[in-house]
C-alpha cells in the first residue's frame, strides 16, 4: 500500500478527514484544535495531492516540479498553453505575457476579467438552495469568454469544452510527466486507498469485531469519498461538506472548469501573487470563488495552498474522473448518522445541489451554512467542527 501523508492529533474516537481536489490536509487546520479535544483525528493527503505520491509513482511527494532539470520543459509548455488561455488581447499583452517582472497590476487586471464583480456570483449574493442552475450556466460566460480555450458557441453545456480543457491541460502537463494517464483517481479508487490506509491507522481491534472503525468527514471530492465509505459500511458516521456527485452535466463541467482555471491562474500568475495575497482586496479577487470570507485568510497559507494545487500530480486524473461520477446508491448510509452541509455562498458546487442531496439521502441531516463558501472551514470553523462532532456522537 502506498503510504499517505497525514497529520494526527488528539485522543478519543477515531476520525478521518479527507480534503478535496487540489487541496491538502492543512485544509482542516481551523477545525483541529476543537476536534482534537474529542477525537483521535487523522487528516490525510489523498494519493497525488499534498505530500502523498500517486500509487506506484517514484517521484518525490512535492512532484517533479521541484526538479531544476524539468523547469525549462515545463516553462515551454506553460508558455505555449498561456498563448491560448491568455491571448494577446488579455491583460498580458505583448512582451508582458509571461515576464515574471510584470507588475501585479497586470495580474490584478486579468483576475478581474476572470472573476468580474458583475458575474453571476457577486460578493453580496447568497446562493441558498433556491438559487437556479441558470446562474451557474450564465457565470460560465465571463469566466471563459469566446477568445479563450472555449471558442465560439462552445458553452459549458456541450462535450466540446471538456476536450478543450483536456487539450489545454495536455500542453501544460504532457504525457511524459510524472503522473500517468492510466492512473485511476475516481471516487471508488480513492475510497479503496483511504479504506486501506484507515485499516492501518485505526486497527479493527479498537472497535467491536466486524464493525466500522472510524468516523469520517470530507470536503468536495473528499465528501464524495466520505459518502462512498459510508455507503460501503466501513464508516461509523459521515459528515460531507458540499460533496461531489449531486451535480447535473452543466454544473459538473462548471466545477471542472473552475478548478482548472484556478490552477492555471496559480501557475501563470505565481510571481505576482504574494503582493496580491497580502491585501484583503487581493484575497477577495483571488480566492473569492472558494471562500465566503477570503479576507480572513492567512496570506502565507493561501500561497502554500496555491502551490499545492499547481503541483498536485493527481489533479488531471481526479478532475477527469468527475465526468463519470454521480451519486446513486446510498447503500449502508441510511443505517448510520450522516450530515450533508452546504455553504450558502458556494460558487464551485452551488447550494441548489443540496436539494438533490436531500432527495437522494432523505434520512440524512441536511444543513445550510450561512455566509460560507465552498470551503467553509475558515469561514465558520466552530459550526463546521460542531457538525462533525454532533454527527459522530
UniProtKB/TrEMBL annotation:
Matches recorded under Gene3D superfamilies: alpha/beta hydrolase
Instruction: Specify whether Hydrolase is a keyword of the entry.
Output: yes
Q: Which GO terms describe its molecular function?
A: hydrolase activity
Pfam families reported for this sequence = Abhydrolase_1, Abhydrolase_6
Q: Locate the AB hydrolase-1 domain: which residues?
A: 14-53, 182-383
Alphabetical keyword list: Hydrolase
User: What is the name listed in the Swiss-Prot or TrEMBL entry for this protein?
Assistant: Alpha/beta fold hydrolase
Q: State the organism named in the record.
A: Dactylosporangium cerinum
